[in-house]
Specification:
The complex is a heterodimer of chains A (94) and B (801).
Chain A: H1 2-26, H2 30-55, H3 61-84
Chain B: H1 3-24, H2 31-46, H3 49-53, E1 58-65, E2 70-76, H4 78-101, H5 109-128, H6 132-150, H7 157-188, H8 193-198, H9 200-203, H10 208-223, H11 232-235, H12 241-250, H13 253-267, H14 271-292, H15 298-325, H16 333-366, H17 382-396, H18 402-418, H19 425-428, H20 431-455, H21 473-491, H22 494-508, H23 531-548, H24 550-553, H25 566-588, H26 593-614, H27 630-648, H28 652-672, H29 676-698, H30 714-736, H31 744-753, H32 760-768, H33 770-792
Antiparallel strand pairs in B: 1-2
Helix pairs in contact in B: 1-2, 1-5, 2-4, 4-5, 4-12, 4-16, 4-21, 4-22, 5-6, 6-7, 7-10, 10-13, 10-14, 12-16, 13-15, 14-15, 14-20, 15-16, 15-20, 16-17, 16-18, 16-21, 16-22, 17-20, 17-21, 18-20, 18-21, 18-23, 20-23, 26-30, 27-28, 28-29, 32-33
The chains are: A mainly alpha (94), B mainly alpha (801).
Amino acid sequence: MLDIVLKIALIGFSLSSVIILIRVIKGPSTPDRIVALDAMGINLAAITGITSMIFHTKAFLDVILLFGILSFIGTVAFSKFLQKGEIIEYERRS
Amino acid sequence: MSVLHLVIVAPLLLAFLVPFLHKRFQSFHTGWFVLLLPAALFIYFFQLIPAMKNQGTIQETANWIPSLGINFTAYVDGLGLLFALLITGIGSLVVLYSIFYLSKEKENLGTFYVYLLMFMGAMLGVVLSDNLIVLYAFWELTSFSSFLLIGFWFERERSRYGAQKSMLITVFGGLAMLGGFLLLHVMTGSFSVREIISMASEISSEPLFIAALVLVLLGAFTKSAQFPFHIWLPDAMEAPTPVSAYLHSATMVKAGIYMVARMSPIFAEQGTWFWLVSGIGILTLLWGSFNAVKQTDLKAILAFSTVSQLGLIMSLLGVGSAALHFKELDNNIYMAAVVAAVFHLINHATFKGSLFMVAGIVDHETGTRDIRRLGGLMQVMPITFTIALIGSFSMAGLPPFNGFLSKEMFLESMVYLLSLNIFQMNTWGVLFPVLAWIASVFTFIYSMILIFKTFAGKYKPKKLPQKPHEAPIGMLISPIILATLVIGFGLFPNVLSNSIIEPAAASIMPGLIDAGQAFDVHFSLWHGFSPALFMTIGVVLIGILLYITLPKWKKIYEILPKQFTLNHMYNSGLIRTETGSNKATNLYMTGSIRTYMIYIFVGLIGILGFSIFTKDAFAIDTSNVASIGLYEIVLALIIVVASLTILMAKSRLTSIVALGAIGYTVALFFVLFRAPDLVLTQLVIETVSVALFLLCFYHLPKMSRKEERIKFKLTNAVVAAGVGIVVTLIALSAYSTKIFDSIAQYYIENTAEKAGGGNMVNVILVDFRGFDTMFEIAVLGIAALGIYGMVRLRLSGRKTE
């Protein structure tokens, strides 16, 4: 029973990933794409979680955490880039 | 190392000392030190004559590379001794002449004598080596030292041109000869000339035999300036005159003759050898003598005359080779041809050496070698004139000089060819005496030009750059000795016959003498009214007639257009090779990396596709394929869509994002295929590299940031599709034809037990196969340092900023 539910959820997340991918590709603006990517990252974290439940393994729990961290860092970096034009600010030595 | 080895390498050893002597004893002319060596060597070789007379040979071996059968075997027989005597004898005379010819102050004498001694040692090595590889080494050393000597006055453009030309041609021939030697080794398993000779009859039917024959002959013909390779010799006349006298008349050009004589017992069983050697020889004889008549430079006349005389000797050797083929001939005239060849070899060395020295004296004392400016030097330089007269008349083949005898024997052999029905001689054989006779007429004409245009006629002091006077006695000694020999050998030819010529002829034609045949060389100045005598009389009469009417028929030399001369062909060939290879290289080396990538990929498709096709390697086997789940299909579709997006994307940013999407999907694949460590790494790396791509994107110059699609190119599409298909096919076949089980079972069993770990991937990385990890760490370290270096070090840009 649980297995079927998990598979349905997996298919649902996959479909939502595909839909998000369309937004990433079409975009019209860059922020659209960045938000889509962020959502995709969380989506992937969810997919990984469900998959590890299907596989009955704890090995992928690190991956879920990593997805969270990376999509956060990535989104912040992109936003900073859009805002200021550079990600790491530093003063040029003359 | 024996005395004989020491004798051969002595000139090379002295060459090392010469620069020190030159520096230490500035007041002496360096040539005096050098002179002692060839004179001593000559005496050493001279006392070997009695031993040779009794068919004795001397052989000494010094190991060099015994495992390859390459040993420095010095071998002296009649032929080798004859050449050694020529080399050392004329070598001493040339050194003596050069002492007076080359100025102590103006010339770089140290270098000159180093080169000359190098050449002398190399030449001795060529004629006294029994091992083919050693012989080849010395052979190339003669080419090389000749190159140095021709280019001795390297500040002159013509010298450099002549040196390059002779180098290219002789080295081409030398390499061909090496090929011939190696083929001989393949057939016989030996590098020793004598051993190969003993196997000669066994190898003559081998398929490689003809190839070896042609290659060895190519080497001999280029070295001996045979048609059409003779073109380097006239240009080598830019060398100092002692060099021309020594190398380009007496010794080096005869290395090819030596090679033909030495190889005759091996190859002469074949008709090909007979036709090639005697045919090319007679052609060279005619062409050289014909061209010598039109030259206006003394040394150029002598150069073409050398070419033609070498052709004469070569054709005699070719005719003589028939002796080996038709041993049953009782009245062995072919032996006479070999004797004539050896005799003329000696005669040519004497009179040509003296004539070159005469040309050098005329040049030295008048400042020019142009016969149009010379004339009437008879009264001014009587001794030089006498020497020149003796030399020229001997060259023309007039009695009582030695040239007469060898020319008679030559014509006799040629006439005799007619009466025999060998090698289908009856069809083309008639050409031999006719060509030989015509060539003799031309030889007569240019010999007369040489002597009378220079020394007779009107004395034109105003045209000469210097006030002419007789040469110093030192310069005259060598040509006088040579001229004396010319007369001496002419009047008493039998001095040579048994002592030198017979052993030499015996080593060219081994096996014929031992058969009990009485082979006694005998010359006589008067041998009755033979056809050859009438031919000589005809030569003289027609020659005088043609010489007198020379201005009238000289126009025939302009008939041949310039494009068809061999020199023009050589020059334009050289230029065409250069421009052609330049064009060919520019054609494919476009400098664009896309083109090179296409080459690489097309090569990949070609090689892999070809081998799959020819080996019938494609196989598909679905028996151990896992079942495909829905999830994998979805992920694969995402990757396909993202890849297509990269290709179709209008902006680069979209491509970068799509690339990131592919990376993350791959990470998901890793999840699906249960590789948690890979997932972690893949995710982090993908994030970092996408960030780096964005960095690159942001710093693109504004000008080129135009947003446009990748242009569609059919070639690229085809190549890309080809690579994809080929790699897919290989992957499918490789998976379908798995032969061995995986070795993974070992790791599964031993990860916890032997390595004490739970994570198998990590245990493999740091324990079972930690070596790879170490060097991947090194790779990352190098990459980091490289990036740091590229960012920080801006050596070239520093000034402009």
